[in-house]
Amino acid sequence: MSGTYLGMPAFPAAAHEAVRDTTLRGNLRHATHTIRAKRARAVAEVEDWAQLREAGKRIKDHTLRHLDEYLVRLEESVTAAGGVVHWAADAEEANRIVTELVKATGEAEVVKVKSMATQEIGLNEALEAAGIRAYETDLAELIVQLGKDRPSHILVPAIHRNRGEIRDIFAREMGEWGRPAPDGLTDTPAELAEAARLHLREKFLRAKVGVSGANFMVAETGTLVVVESEGNGRMCLTLPETLISVVGIEKIVPTWRDLEVFLQTLPRSSTAERMNPYTSTWTGTTDEDGPRVFHLVLLDNGRTDTLADEVGRQALRCIRCSACLNVCPVYERAGGHAYGSVYPGPIGAILSPQLRGTGSDIDASLPYASSLCGACYEVCPVAIDIPEVLVHLRERVAQGGPVTREGNRVVLRPAKGHAAERAAMRAARWALSRPGALRAGQRVASRTRRLHPRTLPGPGRAWSGTRDLPPVPAEPFRDWWQRTHGGRKDAK
Predict the structure, then answer these.
(1) How does pLDDT run across 156-202, given as a tens digit for each residue?
(2) Is the pLDDT of residue 492 over 50?
(3) Stretch among 359-363, 366-370, 459-463 having the lowest mean pLDDT
(4) pLDDT > 90 in the chain, percent
């Protein structure tokens, strides 16, 4: 987890503060509604969208089942093409590898193309601690970095900022990071983009080391793929002499033919484009073009543990399109920062607790950051059943804490809190497994229904404070059935 998220409160507390920010809610509402409307039109153009979605799901599931084989094949292909592959078990190891690689070049600065994996491990902070400055070159990431902020969206990290705020950030901060913003800068998109272009151009021309992620890795050829809309990524991938790519192990696809499916579904689901303006691919190194040295850091950082969960592993299908964020009513009102992770929204609510465990307050609260409306599943281009995983993780949180390993023994640590919920579930299990006790309880509840409170006491007040308690019927169903159908054979 990135250091910028340390100390974040649990989701309910963070969301409670976020919904009070009317500017934030206005920015999010305008942006998410605009993006999802454009996405719906782009998807409607494709007659076989359902088949593409199913194909993407099957490719990802097949790859995850044989991930060990495809990772070995990828390493062999990258090495044969002139690259060097490094394996990182966790964030600390990945940061150490990248820091040592940069130091070996003798450089003290790097340019970065947008990479959620490097944000996940806190690479910028690790490099800074080693005296190396990292410059974000994606426009939205640049806004976040200059504003000393945190990303709040997968596709549009600065979605919580409006044009006036961006202008103020550029005018105030650009001079501290390099070329200052032009005098008299306005908030028109063209002027803001031009200010960013001029600011970044000098960094591209000076930098000797680039750091990237990747949207996909093709096992059969060792090719890495980055899709983007601005061209800053293309500059970062081609101009530096050394390129270091940090990529999660789940981003692999077996063949180029498999890649074809995702190059149709990803742009329409994310930017609502038929294809991305810039699709950059690179395979190792070449004497004629691009970096002379290429390093690939394959990142685990909890992915293998996630893969071991038969229900939760479907989160690893994610291609980071952000479609689920744009339709989520909870994200629209709370914003991305409330999730306390580089992965916000519905996908973050199932991915972060699996990568980091559910031992902290923030991660234990994320599976509950949803109304389970199912809109996220409907728009997911790889058919991740996010509501199913949310319920699965809620069960894990209620039953116990994070799964840990002591030697060869797997241990489920007791969870903090949730004692009342566990007690209620045990009581329900006891009653539902004893028909006589259940029937007696139903009769008592029906006969005393006039005495029932309208709100629950104690911890239950949080539930009944925002919804009506369901009324208890005057007669249990079993009694009604016996009274009305008692003489019939099917009454049993």
Answers:
(1) 898 899 999 999 999 999 999 999 999 999 999 999 999 999 999 99
(2) no
(3) 459-463
(4) 71
Rounded to two decimals, what is the model's pTM?
0.84
pLDDT of residue 6: 55
The mean pLDDT value of the chain amounts to: 90
Question: 């099957």: which residue's tokens?
Answer: 58
Confidence band for 287, pLDDT divided at 50, 70 and 90 = confident
Encode the chain in three state secondary structure: CCHHHCCCCCHHHHHHHHCCCHHHHHHHHHHHHHHHHHHHHHHHCCCCHHHHHHHHHHHHHHHHHCHHHHHHHHHHHHHHCCCEEEEECCHHHHHHHHHHHHHHHCCCEEEECCCHHHHHHCHHHHHHHCCCEEEECCHHHHHHHHCCCCCCCCCCCCCCCCHHHHHHHHHHHHHHHCCCCCCCCCCCHHHHHHHHHHHHHHHHHHCCEEEECCCEEECCCCEEEEEECCCHHHHHHHCCCEEEEEEEHHHEECCHHHHHHHHHHHHHHHCCCCCCCEEEEEECCCCCCCCCEEEEEEECCCHHHHHCCCCHHHHHHCCCCCHHHHHCHHHHHHCHHHHCCCCCHHHHHHHHHHHHCCCCHHHHHHHHCCCCCCHHHHHCCCCCCHHHHHHHHHHHHHHCCCEEEECCEEEECCCCCCHHHHHHHHHHHHHHCCHHHHHHHHHHHHHCHHHCCCCCCHHHHHHHCCCCCCCCCCCCHHHHHHHHHCCCHHHC
